[in-house]
Amino acid sequence: MSRKNALIALGAGLLLAAPAAFVVAAHRPPVPARASLGGGPPEPTGPVDWNLLRRAPVRPSPTSSIGLPDFSHVFLVVMENREYGAVIGNPAAPYINSLARSYALASNYFGVSHPSLPNYLALAAGDTFGIQSDCTTCFVSAPNIADQVEASGRSWRAYMEGMPSACYLGGSAGGYAQKHNPFVYFTDIRNDPARCAAHVVPFSAFSSDLSSGTLPNYAWITPNLCNDMHDCATSVGDSWLATVVPQILGSAAWRDGGVLFITWDEGSSSAGYADSWGGRVATLVISPSGRTGFQSSVLESHDNLLRTIEDAWHLAPLGHAASHPAMLEAFR
């Protein structure tokens, strides 16, 4: 049995052995503060929220890059606030469900925390940094995926729908919310105006980069507060994806070895497992080298998604991604 198939079988075996693998974390007892994985706001010295468990030192998992393609381009679209069952099987989301039937669907995948911001930080850096709110002044001095991508000689851009100007540092503007833009929380981006303006841009730049063939290797996409389902109906987000995703799938950047991840930051519950309790959310893995018509039951979270990108590009795993293996089962 190949290592890749063995990991898949192991995950399935764990699920059979523990049918109640995910739990609702409604009333957790206070826990002592743990050591931080990286920079961020100072930790309390007394009892703290369960979220701070994510800051405990982690034990790296064995390298899991075997079986992963070396992605030419990575696209990551982050939607908002929908539990798995509110999207998958919902007739208000016909396009999303067509993607789920056609590509790989992670059906046992969880947000790491509540509310939004800690999940965005986890996707970008593998840690919540003790942040337990959608604060707009809680900046973090820590390595992140943008740093890694640049250091590897690859390019990156974060496309923010509704952002009024490149590197806009306000808390909100129209349909834009800073809490859905993790990159301006990292001080090495925020405090470097030229770097920030070149890489953290309005979503309007996406179409021009697409048409000119200059899409970056790593493209993060945050829809506005309506199109990401935060403020509007599921059907609105589905229609937005039905407009944007075909543009990505029609690009040479995706066709020639790319991958598109679509995930939701958090669900409406506190369902989770291990150190993730942000609700069960749908996550789609769409790639020419990915499995088709496939549904995974492996327990996973935002940390596994970050690890998948890092392993494919031979980058050192950040934060909790070090203890969460890549999503190998989604690829052929």
Summary keywords:
332 residues, Alkaline Phosphatase, subunit A, alpha/beta, single chain, 9-stranded mixed beta sheet, 11 helices
Give an overview of the whole structure.
The strands form 3 sheets. Strands 2, 3, 4, 7, 8, 9, 11, 12 and 13 form a 9-stranded mixed sheet that branches. This protein has a two-stranded antiparallel ribbon with strand order 1-10. Strands 5-6 form a two-stranded antiparallel ribbon. With 332 residues, the protein is an alpha/beta fold. It has one domain (3-330): Alkaline Phosphatase, subunit A (3-Layer(aba) Sandwich), CATH 3.40.720.10. The chain is built from 11 helices and 13 strands. The two termini are 14 Å apart. Helices cover 29% and strands 16% of the residues. The relative contact order is 0.24. Helix 4 (116-125) packs parallel to helix 11.
Quickly give the CATH architecture.
3-Layer(aba) Sandwich
Helix content: 25-40%
CATH superfamily: Alkaline Phosphatase, subunit A
Shape: globular
Number of helices: 11
SSE layout:
Blueprint: H1 3-17, E1 23-24, E2 74-79, H2 84-87, H3 94-102, E3 104-110, H4 116-125, H5 145-151, E4 156-160, E5 172-173, E6 176-177, H6 187-190, H7 193-199, E7 200-202, H8 204-212, E8 218-222, H9 234-249, H10 252-255, E9 259-264, E10 271-272, E11 280-286, E12 294-296, E13 300-301, H11 302-312
Parallel strand pairs: 2-8, 2-9, 3-12, 3-13, 4-7, 4-8
Antiparallel strand pairs: 1-10, 3-11, 5-6, 9-11
Helix pairs in contact: 4-11
